[in-house]
Amino acid sequence: QVQLVESGGGLVQAGGSLRLSCAASGIIFSGKTMAWYRQAPGKQRELVARITRDGTTNYGDSVKGRFAISRYDAKNTVYLQMNSLKPEDTAVYYCNVGRGTPWNWGQGTQVTVSS
User: ∠106-33-68 over CA atoms, to 5°?
Assistant: First the structure.
């Protein structure tokens, strides 16, 4: 069974940075498009960033130029470097496949940005 474990969240001031990690077990994801999502209180989960198996990336409009997604397939891990954080980035962040039926969702990692 696939298990996704997100980590690296925390409380940071506006303008700060965080690096999130997501480790997958129970599957080899080297052939998969992977993605980061986020869900803020009272809002639907939204796609933040996506990376294909060959490293092509795309981002939501609200994070372009500030966030960077990367992957390290040898460790079944995907990362999200978040810079110039804003209070509106506050959310629980999750990773999962970027296309098709999602795997079981992990617990996510909370990111809180104070103004």
Answer: 80
Strands (E) located in 8-90: 10-13, 18-25, 34-39, 46-51, 57-59, 67-72, 77-82
Tell me if 22 sits within 8 A of 78, measured CB to CB. Answer: yes
pLDDT tens digit string along 7-48? 999 999 999 999 999 999 988 778 899 999 999 999 999 999
3-state secondary structure of 15: coil
Tokens of 40: 């803020």
* Contact call for residues 94 and 106 (beta carbons, < 8 A): yes
Which token pair is 31?
A: 């052939």
How do residues 54-113 score in pLDDT, each as one tens digit? 999 999 999 999 999 999 999 999 999 999 999 999 999 999 999 999 999 999 999 999
User: Identity (one letter) of the amino acid at 12?
Assistant: V
